[in-house]
Design goal:
alpha/beta; single chain; 134 residues; globular; Rossmann fold; 51% helix
């Protein structure tokens, strides 16, 4: 199964944000053992590094590097960025993330903020919901 992770899950993991860290860790553990394929937008890494400045940036950088062997980092197509300017979505980034997930043929999106993806045409789950499907 190919899952697209929303930025908040990556930030929860690399910044060890509580109380969300353990859920994020579970998802990355599944990717590490090859039970799922994890897709991340390059935008998510950029945003995580930006947010990571509030934490220990050296540790955040190292944690991102530690997952790279078993995640697929997707390029951010310019047509998606431009198309998003005309979308009806309230959140520009969430639209971009959804389009990236669609273009990469992800089976679902995993996020903490499902309501932000209510217009998504592919399934959207929280970590808990996703784990119950396995």
């Amino acid at each position: 199964m190919k899952i697209f992770l929303d930025t908040n899950i990556l930030i929860d993991f690399v910044c060890k944000r509580q109380p969300f860290y353990n859920d994020a860790k579970r998802i990355f553990a599944l990717g590490h053992i090859g039970q799922i394929v994890i897709l991340l937008s390059s935008l998510s890494i950029v945003n995580s590094m930006y947010i990571g400045k509030k934490y220990e940036l050296t540790v955040v950088r190292q944690r991102i590097k530690s997952i790279l062997p078993f995640v697929s980092v997707l390029d951010l197509p310019s047509d998606v960025v431009i198309m998003a300017l005309d979308s009806q979505w309230k959140d520009y980034e969430d639209y971009v993330q959804t389009q990236s997930a669609l273009e990469s043929c992800a089976d679902c999106i995993i996020t903490r903020n499902k309501k932000d993806f209510n217009l998504s045409s592919i399934p959207v789950y929280t970590v808990e919901e996703f784990m119950s499907l396995l």
